[in-house]
Each structure stands twice: as structure tokens, then as C-alpha cells.
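Check out one such.
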Amino acid sequence: MKYPKIFSSGVLIAIVGIVMFSAKAIMVKLAYQYEVSSIHLLLFRMLFSLPFYIVILIYFKPVKPNKIDKKDYVWLFFFGFVGYYLASYFDFLGLQYIKAGLERIILFVYPTLVIIISKIFLKTKITTQQIIAILITYFGVVITFWGEIQLESNNTILGGSLIFLSALTYAAYLVGSGWLIPKFGVIVFTAYAMIVSSFCVIVHYFIFDRENIFNYSKEVYILGFLMAIISTLIPSFLVSLAIKKLGASNFSIIGSIGPISTIILAYFLLSERLSFLQLIGSIIVILGVLIVSINKQNKN
């Protein structure tokens, strides 16, 4: 079987970016030991990464400036707002009402949402292989986190609805990314989107919080900086590049490997338990990802 370089590199880039994003959860757990609030941690993450995005935007220009309309900048602002700010905010809110296991299962319905949104707005064809891959990866995620599901909370519906909104907004961002990246280029689009998200987080802090952020131990700031570079700056460009190479639909399916990588990283870095059921679920998710990869490779 011949493996086209474009797709093979796209899959590798997607996996590396997803794993680096997943490392954020590990750093968050480490930071929570120092009693830092979630909004402050999100603020540190964006503040430390913001200067890098601004410098990058100064030195890079859109690849096809003659094809960019004013409305494209409006859409870019919109997708930056929903992708890395609103989706994260809905996720934080939802986690106040439901357990992390149920949150992960609901959140990873987003590959289906990506394909549906692409079909409705971009008239993208839904392939049989994509449907099969989605069913397999989602089944694997459910198996992996089944033991963590708890429905005794009276606010389960509220929490589940907020997590679904998080999945929906992130799916909208992925679809918008696939449409706008060819016009702006990977670097410029990502820098713009992350600057918008950073601005939204800063505004959120000044409106709803305004607590002192300078009284934490140095470990919090170190973790915030590492999160900004390792789990924000670098993977944000990798994800955008992967979307350009693979398309939003295929990338979203590969993204199902995210919660699996979090479990594996937690096992090695936080000494958390890795059950046999989680191992089986992880293998099933990887199988779903392979189906997407093999399908695309055979077409080229």
C-alpha cells in the first residue's frame, strides 16, 4: 500500500497536536494543588501565549490577501471567539454539574457535529468510512469512561447541555477553520484566532472576576507558562496545519484520540490508575482513527 506524504504527515501532525493539547489537563491538575482558580489558570495560559501570537502576526501576512473580504475578518473573529474561548467556558461551566467521565463522552460527540455542520453549510459529502469511524471511536470513548459516569446529580441535564454547547461551538470552529485557513494561511489564521480568544478571556476576567492574580506560588506561573507554550502555542499551529491537510471532518475523528492520550499521560505523569476497560476502549478509538487514515490513503 502506498502512503501519500500529504495525508501521512497530516495524520502525524494531528496526533502530535492533539496529544500536546491533551497535556493541558495534566498541567491543570498539577496547578490545582496550589489552589488556583480555573479562570485565573485560563488567564495565565492565554496571557503567556499572547505575546508570541502578536509577534508572529507582525512578521507573517495572509497567503492570499486578494481573496480576503472584510466579512472574512468578521468570521475569523467569530470563530476565534467560539473556538478557544466560548467552547472552553461552556466546558468549565458544565464540569460544575457533572463528572469528568460523562463530560468527556458528551464532548466527543463533536466529530459527528463537524460532519453535520459541514454537510449543511459547505455541502460536504459524508462517506460511509467516516460514519463507521465515528461510531467506532465514540464507542471506544464510551467504554473508556463508562466506569466514571455518575448520574445522581439533579443538575445532570443542565451540565450535559452546557458540555454539548461546548462540543457544538468547537465543532463550528473546526468547520470555520477548514474554510478560512486557505485564505489566511495556517500561521496567520491561528495567530488571529488565538489573539481574539485571549482578548475574550481577558475581558471575561475584568468583568466577572478581578481578583488578585499575583499572590500565587511560583509553581503556578511556571505551569501556566508551560501550558501556554506546550499545550497552546505549538499545538494551535499544528492543529490548524492538520485541518488544512486533512479537512475538518477527518481531523475531528482523529481528535477522538484526545481523551485517550490524557489517560495515558495521567498514568505516567500523575500515577493515575489505568484499568483494563480503559485500555480496551483506547484500542477501539485508535482503530477508528486508523479507518479514517487508511480510507484517505487509499483514495490518493
